[in-house]
Automatic annotation (TrEMBL):
Pfam families: RmlD_sub_bind. One of its GO terms (cellular component) is methionine adenosyltransferase complex. Residues 3-285 form the RmlD-like substrate binding domain. GO terms for molecular function: methionine adenosyltransferase regulator activity. GO terms for biological process: S-adenosylmethionine biosynthetic process. This is dTDP-4-dehydrorhamnose reductase. InterPro entries: dTDP_dehydrorham_reduct (IPR005913), NAD(P)-bd_dom_sf (IPR036291), RmlD-like-bd (IPR029903).
Amino acid sequence: MVMKLLITGITSLPGYKTVIEGIEKNHEIVGIYHEKIPDLKIKLIKADLTNKMLTQDIIIKEKPDAIIHIAGMGDVDNCEVEKEKCFNSNYLSTLNIVKVSNAFNIHMIYLSTDYVFDGQKGNYKENETPNPINYYGLTKLLGESSVKTLTNYAIVRTSTIYGIGIGRSNFAMYLINKLKNGEEIKAVVDQFTSPTNTTLLAKALIEIAEKRLIGVFHVGGERLSRYEFAVKLAEKMGFDTDLIRKTYINEMKWKAKRPIDSSLNFDNTKKFIDINFYETENALNILKSEYYSLKVEKDN
């Protein structure tokens, strides 16, 4: 069934990829962007989602079957410094969408984060109690709380998003750009997440919309340290793994605290989602294919 999907944050990597996946599934896509105009052949609307009336007017006019809310401030360190901007971007905009979604019973899908957890245990299930240790995680949790006031919602927590495309730099592209030039990099060995291929995340988001799934879902990859992920990526791409140096979380000059182990458990999500979003081998194969496809396009 063809759906009308309103997707926010389409100039981010996950937003862009979700639009592409929606187009490939023949859905009607309306994309919301804030500043830079994206190169996408869909209906584009420029909007500041912290503006309550503007946000509600857009949604009422477009009448989407579902809203996939990806927009937000994702730089963890900047969130610690620019707290008001982070609050408005991650919570206030979400609240504005929630209010109109509730009034018109629109299925709202909210992209959240593993950083709602404190990282004391790892392998977190959807029903475990969040306890964020940085401001970014707090604002995303506030967003979750507002979304949970709806009856027709899905919260998708993910982790360390990476991939080929647009948006701000991500760890995988940083690694590729350094290692292909023979430059050494440092990667933390004692912080664990569930690195997530953005193409697979996008497929999961569209599938959740199509199936109108309700509840909280974890989507991501296998539990890995940044060092382990860097080595696996280097091996897959044929780069020299000796260029990857170990470092530790207490040596990093981050402004915001990071959870030691915010890895996610996917047992529940696997019951509902058909795609293999969780195996690192599959995810890195997709990354490699997309990287060389893009390289060929640029070379031509």
